[in-house]
User: Fold this.
Amino acid sequence: MDSIDLYRQLLGLTTPWTVQRVEMDIPKLHVDVHLEHAPGARFACPECGGEFGVYDHAAERRWRHLDSCHFQTVLHARAPRVRCPEHGGRQAKVPWAEPSGRFTHMFEALAIDVLLATDVSKAAILLGITWDEAWHIMERAVIRGRSSKPQTLPEHIGIDEKAISKGHRYMTLVYDLEEATVQYIGQDRKQTSLEPYFEAFPPEALQGVQAECDHRNRWTDDRLG
Ligand SMILES: [Zn+2]
Assistant:
């Protein structure tokens, strides 16, 4: 298996996307993986899902992906653009990342696991990203968690405080313990931090909620200092 096939399989790419070339910089422990789609492929308008041929491409973008054997791995591609009769020129979605994301879905999933197991500063160091990038990954995860089921309060919620920076600022996180998703991030660690979360639900939805402040497994309390 050559490096192109290897990365095509590791990335789980499916038609029409494939790996065009792989460039390794061994002294820098860095791999650039260039992706392309098959000629003649059709892509969906992100607004209506209608499929159209490609009329041009956006500028090349890069997405940080999971490291491969300690090599920092970056994907490169030019997203195709379609011209929808109803919505005009639109950039098609790429299957490995959010439209505006700088990281792949797989990298973000790892980052969220690391963020939940530690605090933002340590997660940023472990992942090799900045504090702001780690924080934005967490925020986007919450937005996704909320938008997927806007009116359903999880049956088992976990509430946890996490240090944002050593011993100074805190945030309060609400987890859906069954789905293992972050539902909400509150500023600070006061009880009032949670009010906006619960106020979003109708009162009858709040009956029978079981909340746990869980300090056992991966949602460990990581108060520093
Ligand atoms: Zn459209």
Notes: The longest strand covers residues 17-25. Residues 120-212 form one domain.
